[in-house]
Design goal:
23 helices
């Protein structure tokens, strides 16, 4: 059946050019394998249902809902105001504020698109009014948005954990240091170029203004603390943390900031259902496709070939980075995770690569892909927000790829950057 699976996989790859929805192509490929391999047709709905029957996947709609609520309840505005008060007085201060706000926002939403489409509206408007050119504002907003799915909570990390049968909590903790390194690397680039480009700065607002901004953003700042403390304290699992975070965002929006109204909730729930429906369609059809590949033993065959042909874990990771960076240029991150995990995770584990390091490398590669053309979804969002041509934003974002790629190289070469915190807190 390996030959049959290889042929169907090649036909599926060729069919991507048709423009048909990816979940449709995945479902048709899985159905074709089941039919031609002689399995009973009942296998198709069974495998689709089993793929959806996953406790960690319950986190997906709650993370999406939380991001939608944050964008509608004034939380994003307060986060940026606090970040601006902290860093606006530096040369290129609003660039630093942009990055700092993305770090804070990441601790609640876990979505690059939510960051770019929600917080990005506030950031780009403020930077343009302060004299920054629109391309710089849009490009930095896109680059800093990639931090969102790295620092926990993270929807792509949850999807990866489901596909790879990895620990969600371990992945969340393993991504904290790389996420902070991404922010530090972007801020270092800004600091190095701010004086050369003559980027503007604001006067120091004073301690009173800084404290007022901190109090305004206090409830948003408490969210990551609440989530991490609850998970590490055993009060709820990472999956349950998504529900807690969504409820927290709703309560803050309704009763603390009072910018969210009860009549807004049906619209937010419908938006959440629409986004979740797309994700679940991909998850279920990819689950069927992954089962087909598994019973054909194609991943096992490729795994044995890769292990025998490569042998060195570091060389394998460097090759994996190259593959994922290319794939990320053409495919949406969640779809790429679901398709590539069954192929690359088994040989990686056979080579002794830590599953936490592997998961963070996987997600970080694909997040970089969200700001690279031709299918950089975050680039499209920021270009739309900034009302700029996509090509202009794609050119402007190129310098910001360098610090992100350096962080990727660092976590590839030095595993403790991803394994130290899970080892310290979870005893791995």
């Amino acid at each position: 059946m390996t030959g049959l699976a290889s042929g169907i996989l090649a036909a599926w790859a060729a069919s991507l050019a048709s423009g048909a929805p990816l979940f449709v192509l995945l479902g048709l490929a899985g159905w074709a394998f089941v039919l031609l391999a002689g399995f009973p047709g009942i296998v198709v709905p069974q495998r689709i249902a089993m793929a959806a029957n996953s406790f960690p996947l319950l986190a997906a709609p709650f993370f999406v809902l939380m991001g939608n609520v944050m964008n509608a309840s004034g939380i994003t505005t307060r986060i940026f105001a606090f970040a601006r008060a902290m860093t606006g007085w530096l040369r290129g201060g609003l660039c630093h504020a942009n990055i700092t706000a993305s770090v804070i926002f990441a601790g609640m939403s876990g979505s690059a698109v939510a960051d770019a489409g929600g917080l990005g509206v506030v950031e780009i408007k403020a930077m343009r009014e302060a004299g920054y050119d629109p391309e710089t504002a849009a490009a930095l907003t896109a680059a800093s948005a990639t931090i969102g799915p790295i620092i926990p909570p993270s929807l792509p990390m949850v999807i990866y954990a489901v596909a790879a049968e990895a620990s969600v909590g371990g992945l969340f903790l393993g991504a904290v240091v790389p996420g902070l390194l991404m922010a530090g690397a972007l801020m270092l680039l800004v600091a190095l170029t701010a004086r050369r480009k003559g980027l503007p700065r604001e006067p120091f607002p004073g301690v009173r203004v800084l404290l007022r901004a901190a109090l305004g953003a206090l409830w948003a700042l408490l969210a990551p603390v609440l989530l991490l403390a609850g998970m590490l304290g055993g009060m709820f699992t990472p999956t349950e943390a998504a529900a807690v975070a969504a409820a927290y965002a709703i309560l803050v929006g309704l009763f603390v900031y009072r910018e969210l109204r009860l009549r807004d909730l049906p619209r937010l729930l419908l938006d959440t259902l629409e986004t979740t429906g797309v994700v679940m369609a991909l998850v279920m059809t990819a689950g069927l496709f992954a089962w087909c590949l598994s019973v054909s033993r194609l991943p096992q065959t490729l795994s044995a070939s890769l292990v025998a042909g490569i042998g060195d874990p570091l060389f394998f990771l460097l090759l994996l980075n190259l593959v994922l960076l290319v794939v990320g240029c053409f495919m949406e991150a969640i779809a790429a995770i679901l398709l590539l995990v069954p192929i690359f995770v088994p040989p990686a584990l056979a080579l002794g690569i830590d599953p936490i390091q592997l998961g963070v490398i996987f997600v970080l590669n694909l997040m970089i892909g969200t700001i690279t053309p031709p299918v950089g979804v975050v680039l499209f969002v920021t270009a739309n927000v900034a009302r700029l041509p996509f090509e202009a934003v794609a050119r402007a974002v190129l310098p910001y790829l360098a610090p992100l790629l350096l962080v990727l190289l660092a976590i590839t070469l030095w595993p403790p950057l991803t394994t130290w915190l899970p080892g310290l807190l979870l005893g791995r």
